UniProtKB/TrEMBL annotation, chains A, B:
InterPro entries: FAD-bd_oxidored_4_C, FAD-bd_PCMH, FAD-bd_PCMH-like_sf, FAD-bd_PCMH_sub1, FAD-bd_PCMH_sub2, FAD-linked_Oxase-like_C, FAD-oxidored/transferase_4, Oxid_FAD_bind_N. The keyword DNA repair does not apply. It comes from the Bacteria. This is FAD-binding oxidoreductase. Belongs to the FAD-binding oxidoreductase/transferase type 4 family. GO terms for molecular function: catalytic activity; FAD binding. It comes from Marimonas arenosa. Its cofactor is FAD. Keywords: FAD, Flavoprotein. One of its GO terms (biological process) is respiratory electron transport chain. Residues 38-219 form the FAD-binding PCMH-type domain. The keyword Flavoprotein applies.
Amino acid sequence: MNLNSANDAFVAKLRSHISEAAIRTVEPRYLEEPRGKWQGQAGVVVAPANTEEVAAAIRAAGDARVGVIPYGGGTGLVGAQIMPEGPAPMILSLERMNTIRGVYPEENVIVAEAGVILQEIHEAAGAAGRLFPLSIAAKGSARIGGNLSTNAGGVNVLRYGNARDLCLGIDAVLPDGSIMHGLTRLRKDNTGYDLRNLLIGAEGTLGVITAAALKLAPRPQETGTALLVVNGPAAALDLLSLARDQVGEAVSSFELIDGQGFDFLADTLPDIRRPFDPAPPWMVLVELGLSGGAGAQAALERLFGAGLETGLLSDGVLAHSGAQRDALWEIREQIPEANRRVGSVSSHDVSLPLSEIDGFIAAARAALAQLGDFRINCFGHLGDGNLHYNVFPARGRTRADYPGMGPRVQERVHEMVVARGGSFSAEHGVGRLKTGDLERWGDPARLAAMRAIKAALDPLGIMNPGAVLTAGG
Amino acid sequence: MNLNSANDAFVAKLRSHISEAAIRTVEPRYLEEPRGKWQGQAGVVVAPANTEEVAAAIRAAGDARVGVIPYGGGTGLVGAQIMPEGPAPMILSLERMNTIRGVYPEENVIVAEAGVILQEIHEAAGAAGRLFPLSIAAKGSARIGGNLSTNAGGVNVLRYGNARDLCLGIDAVLPDGSIMHGLTRLRKDNTGYDLRNLLIGAEGTLGVITAAALKLAPRPQETGTALLVVNGPAAALDLLSLARDQVGEAVSSFELIDGQGFDFLADTLPDIRRPFDPAPPWMVLVELGLSGGAGAQAALERLFGAGLETGLLSDGVLAHSGAQRDALWEIREQIPEANRRVGSVSSHDVSLPLSEIDGFIAAARAALAQLGDFRINCFGHLGDGNLHYNVFPARGRTRADYPGMGPRVQERVHEMVVARGGSFSAEHGVGRLKTGDLERWGDPARLAAMRAIKAALDPLGIMNPGAVLTAGG
């Protein structure tokens, strides 16, 4: 199944199927991605105004056997939105499909087109007195279609689930250009195969999501936020159990913070206020969101007291204002930027069964010490078992001092994760970065079924070729 | 793709692939279903001891082109577990795979084989101080594999989601006999297509789930239950909003009860105590489950007071003991049995966007009055938008007095549901009962994709032939 380039002849044909306004200049922003690992290429960028135009563009690409790269906010971290080689594709940007079609506060539902920016969905939900809980660092530029296509995670998964859990229905264009209408606002609908969840997380390889009906949640009436110094990852998990015993589902976030992350902030972003100095080895950022009259501050103080008493924690700061809350979140949210400035040897987005986390962290540190002298910043969504396990040069050295080491570190980390029943991609997806990992670690029967589904729905192989599944596989 | 009967020659071959203990007598219980709509048939029943034997049996069936009917507890209401015609199939019962493989309270996870009865999972979770929230009337005989294959719903979906939302990972045997290993205990795993959710709800047509890792929840420390007399379905939904404003996710159940259901109980099961006489037109059964110290009784009383004040409700009883709570639930749970004794003209399991419910109930009553003289019992999981909309003969008449009327009533109801953006099968599935509805009301692109996936994964068409998708389609 050889594809063709989206050349001038193709663009000329495209013009007969979609409006002129949908044909865009191939600006550099479409060809870059946040980590600078790849340089993309494209023969044309199209930005359809509606689902029918998406369908027309995909049908044209199918007729011409041109690859299609669906493009949301461009914030993905595994290269699903970038075609670095092969015949130049058509980039299909959802940026013009940016209408919020309806907010139904009494149903706790919002219906948005795929190109709406995540932050705008937050704002529309908030204006209706509701919460759209999906929240990631890139919320100001990520678009909801991309969030769904990659099944985005973030800081509220613990309580509200990931993008998949927040989606009730989708409209999508399938690889043959047919439109699948499924923008239902239903909580229950058992009428056949779950194609919604098949497209969610398929990273654009099985079709393009063009609109979604999303779940909203009641806004917690009181929020309590604290940064607590814990006696290690195991103590942190025990503290999470304690918190859930005390307040049930009200634990909205439970983020592990590594003392190494504090040190990186001190080195690269010194203006960010760090409440503890020197940095304790391990902290957690806890947020509770409670309903009316339940007393979030009191609940946090009770948790703090119980944590002190049981020896799970030794210190902490509680936010007493919105500004203090923002300051605590600023620490968490700037750690990825600090990491970027330090420059990792290898970064990992892994998940583990909760009871394997403590053992993994100890064993991985020991195993990597045998490979070289590293600093490790292990942080993230502890309550979900999701660690951003990032490995950095020793102080005073740079990644250039570790030639060829990145892949070795990565292999070792992924090997240890998989051996403990974990995943080598918890929330970022496979994209083009981890196709080799999927081949290596994926269950063979599952991979064969994935390939059979890909071939059945996209026999020409035009949708996001090379992402998730390798072409040759 | 003509299939063959599971005849003596096939059974003889089967014996060379699986242990003798797995070959069962074709007892009548395998050939009956709860509503007595169909009489099943089978050439052989196999009950494998483990996943490898399931795989061997399916490979043998594939070699001989014999149909396979996966069989859990036999409690399904749409005939997915029954083959009434065509070549006699192999019934594949999971009854011997009934081991709970592990309980991980610190992870809030339980791992169970597909044949474990739902009630046993409740008990194992309870023994570990946890809750497995999936709860349906048939919990004493339904098996978890069937619950997952049909994406079962029930009375706690409002808070905890349906079977799909409670499943972290599955092992399954695919139609080619390959074993897909995916029994992960992970909360996040973005490594390729979501085959778990594809198999969940596929009603055994794409493979057989053999084991599952399931989410547990903290047990609410206080439960409050009340039966409230509401001023109609719209008032009931407003009361639900009020309850959520007051206690957030703690609303575990919110069941609509129709005065007609009370009258049916009085007629057919008079020993069940009904707190209001005569029956009010509409009631809701509300249950709150709260964490430590939050005061469930007080919360219910506050809700009751606010409901009275705003005119949403006019009366109610609060349970003050476990026995009183059970008595309220007994009313709800015996309504289906009362319905069965009265004998419906047509029963429906529909869902609607919440804001369409009130209008639908009024419009459907008016539309059916034009078809004939009926009694309507409209009850169920209101918070999920899921109504069991059941239509009965007028008092003193029986369904025999309504010849040919069942399909007409059903068509009218489903037509009105679909026109309002609803579903003709909210939680029971498609099975063999609703394949015609799926053809008629299903989105064409979605149906085409379903057929393509079925053909890709089960090219011989051996898995549950005739369920969900019609063979000719």
